[in-house]
Design brief:
122 residues; mainly alpha; elongated
Amino acid sequence: MKKQFLSIIALGAILIAGGCYYDVEEDLYPDVNCITTNQSYATDIVPILQTNCYVCHGQGVGLGNVTLQGYANLKVYVNNSKLVGVINHDSRFPAMPQGAAKLSACNIDKIEAWIADGALDN
């Protein structure tokens, strides 16, 4: 009886452990509707920053002496390539958001497209 109980426990542990693995949702189900053309600072980029960055790097917070809120503030990090480095988790930069997964591939693509198009304040 004890052997059966231990066998059931072991089988249950194997099934549970075998079923627990981490997949990145965007890798499994890529966003095929990600539009990266004609990105606007106000319409496309600011909402990404509000959701993912401003809690630590908004006006009046500025953790690490970094404030991304406001076009002029953000443009500094665009111009010195730090914005792209941190959101891509490039090993030469601190990964942001800190302690969290990278932004979605679509959001990174939108930011990079906006920068490639001149990072205009529109």
